[in-house]
Write a structure and sequence with these properties.
By secondary structure, this protein is mostly helical. The chain has 2 domains: about 70 residues, no CATH class; about 90 residues, no CATH class. The protein has 8 helices and 3 strands; from the N terminus they run H-H-E-E-E-H-H-H-H-H-H. Strands 1-2-3 form a 3-stranded antiparallel β-sheet. Strand 2 and strand 3 form a beta hairpin. The longest helix is centred in the last third of the chain and has 22 residues. It starts with about 30 loop residues before the first helix and ends with a helix.
Length: about 210
């Protein structure tokens, strides 16, 4: 960053500060990272603030992390979660290093539980009404999570939504209990958007043409 960021604090009684945005910083050398972390703690301390001890950590991550940790007998490089994705070190099909992202399992489980609760609440809505709502939900999820390398998570999310929907339909009447999965598969194909990668790699998206 160039220059200081000016922050205005409100000291009136009863004011609660919102949670700070998560921040990920990368360094070439570990000593630089340790120095930055120490100075950041000191800077925040001047304003009576502090870093969350359980959510602040230094990890070895990047192009040479796997090689270095393998020589030290430490196993695979650690991962970190940021903006709804778990980031981890990986390789392209050609063997080049790349940072891979997959949807956070915890966030996905929470979203599926939310969908299940909503479907149960509107169990007796028409199939069309349920399908239209689920289409918008799945499309919204894909619009954010459809990044390169995340296809398995997209397929899993779409499949789980279909399975939950089938379970709710079968609970609502004897008619639907006699339905087989082939019937549900047709509903899924018609109403739920396909799990396709929608976003380019970051270097492609940020390239100025």
């Amino acid at each position: 960053m160039s220059g200081d960021v000016h922050v205005r604090f409100c000291e009136s009684v009863g004011v609660q500060f919102p949670r700070a945005t998560h921040l990920v910083m990368g360094f070439q050398h570990r000593l630089e990272a340790e120095r930055c972390l120490q100075e950041l703690k000191e800077r925040l301390g001047k304003f009576g603030l502090e870093l969350h001890p359980e959510k602040t950590r230094l990890i070895e991550f990047g192009r040479y992390a796997a090689e270095r940790r393998s020589k030290a007998g430490l196993g695979k490089p650690e991962t970190f979660s940021f903006l709804g994705f778990t980031h981890y070190c990986g390789r392209t099909r050609k063997g080049a290093f790349t940072i891979k992202r997959q949807s956070m399992a915890k966030r996905m489980r929470a979203k599926l539980l939310e969908i299940k609760a909503q479907l149960k609440r509107h169990m007796h809505s028409t199939v069309t009404e349920m399908g239209e709502w689920l289409r918008s939900v799945v499309r919204g999820w894909l619009n954010y999570h459809a990044v390169p390398g995340n296809s398995p998570s997209l397929d899993r999310f779409r499949s789980e939504v279909g399975r939950i929907w089938f379970g709710v339909l079968r609970r609502r009447s004897q008619k639907f209990r006699r339905k087989r999965w082939q019937y549900m598969a047709r509903l899924i194909r018609y109403w739920l958007p396909p799990a396709r990668i929608l976003h380019p790699y970051p270097d492609k998206r940020l390239t100025v043409k």
